[in-house]
Design brief:
Helices cover 81% and strands 0% of the residues.
Length: 413
């Protein structure tokens, strides 16, 4: 009970602190409430939540209604006292504090605290958020709404599968891949609008490296044919994604088996350092080297994403077929197979084998071999799909990374 009330009061305190910083203490633009008032609103909401949770619904509801009425009356008095447009952010924040404090009083502490932190962030980043809104046009809003429909309406309606009569086809997984590729396209579109095509594609690649660097490599290779003038920025995105990948698999291994993660550093650190150096070199060259052009008319590139997702599905079916009929021997065979198909699956399976008593060194070596195979597969994608200028830069960076990985594997074998 004390913990619930403390969280409720803390929510009011941090929101009140931000409101104190963001506005003048006197004058027509002064806030109706500051640190102490918001602190008291948080306590009021917390008490109301405790009462409602203790089946004293009527007293708790009365307290909430009183707090809400206080905010409404304060806003009405402020509007009536000035002829200029009135900002109602502080009054709205007061209502939100009441609601979150009530959640805390009812015991939803993580929800209340997390939402409270998001509220304070939104209040404190007013200038940056307004700048971002001014940079977003009708096309971006339409694409965002379209993406939400595709993700929240269509995806849940698709069957999960698999359908063995259709080679293990899984409609929901295929559509999830379409959404992933479209999301990469949209992120790249927004990034290039905000910071330019050269650095924008690099930022997109670094973020996509946390999800699927292979999907990004395929997508950026294809974009390089339509936008050859942005070859350097697209290559930067691919190398940045492949630089994040070793760090990601080390973190996964650290959570599953710290001993494997320790041995894996021998392979991940050189790959990360070399990739970071190549990314830094390309980033320095991408400042003004590429002419600014109009972004594509379709931020999601939905048709392109669908084509690439189908190509991914066909490749996975072929790999599954080959594995079922030809098999793979030991860790080396698994590393070669999963390095192309699913490096995350390889990382998880090797860490589990190590936990069950197999050698941590052998498991780390298999993951390192899978990382090398994955890097080589991306080089093949860049060569086959990418444009000439993009191919030269992307393959060059990936080749240096592959050489560093191969050298460490040969030395540690």
């Amino acid at each position: 009970m004390v913990e619930n009330l403390a969280v409720a009061a803390l929510i009011g305190l941090i929101v009140g602190t931000e409101r104190e910083w963001s506005g003048p203490e006197a004058g027509p633009g002064r806030r109706f409430a500051g640190l102490r008032t918001f602190f008291l609103l948080g306590i009021l909401g917390g008490i109301a939540g405790l009462l409602i949770g203790s089946d004293a619904t009527i007293p708790g509801s009365i307290l909430l209604a009183a707090g809400a009425a206080f905010n409404v009356v304060a806003y009405a008095r402020a509007v009536r006292g000035t002829e200029s447009p009135r900002d109602g952010t502080t009054e709205a924040a007061g209502l939100v504090v009441l609601a979150l404090a009530t959640f805390a009083g009812l015991g939803y502490l993580l929800l209340a605290a997390g939402t409270g932190a998001a509220v304070v962030f939104a209040l404190g980043e007013k200038q940056r958020l307004h700048w971002l809104v001014r940079r977003i046009g009708q096309e971006e809003m339409h694409a965002a709404l379209q993406f939400l429909v595709l993700a929240l309406v269509i995806l849940p309606l698709l069957p999960t599968g698999p359908y063995e009569s259709f080679w293990g086809f899984r409609p929901r997984v295929l559509w999830a891949m379409v959404l992933l590729l479209s999301g990469i396209n949209f992120a790249g579109y927004l990034a290039r609008r905000l910071v330019g095509p050269g650095k924008g594609y690099g930022i997109t690649g670094a973020l996509a490296g946390l999800i699927s660097s292979t999907a990004l490599t395929l997508q950026f290779s294809r974009i390089s044919r339509a936008e050859p003038q942005h070859a350097r920025g697209l290559a930067l995105g691919v190398i940045a994604a492949c630089t994040i990948l070793p760090a990601r698999i080390v973190l996964v291994s650290l959570a599953l088996s710290p001993a494997v993660a320790l041995h894996l550093l021998w392979y991940a650190v050189p790959a990360f350092v070399v990739g970071a150096a190549c990314s830094a070199w390309l980033l320095r060259k991408s400042g003004s080297a590429e002419a600014a052009t109009d972004p594509p008319k379709s931020p999601l590139r939905l048709w392109s994403a669908l084509q690439l997702a189908i190509a991914f599905e066909v490749a996975f079916v072929a790999i599954r077929y080959a594995q079922a009929h030809f098999g793979s021997s030991g860790m080396v065979g698994s590393a070669l197979f999963f390095g192309v198909a699913d490096l995350d699956a390889l990382t998880v399976s090797m860490n589990r084998l190590a936990v069950n008593g197999d050698s941590e060194i052998a498991a780390a070596r298999a993951i390192g071999l899978g990382l090398l195979t994955n890097t080589v597969s991306k080089m093949v994608i860049a060569v086959v799909v990418g444009a000439k200028a993009f191919r030269k830069l992307a393959v060059g960076g990936l080749l240096v990374t592959a050489v560093a990985l191969g050298a460490m594997l040969w030395w540690r074998w």
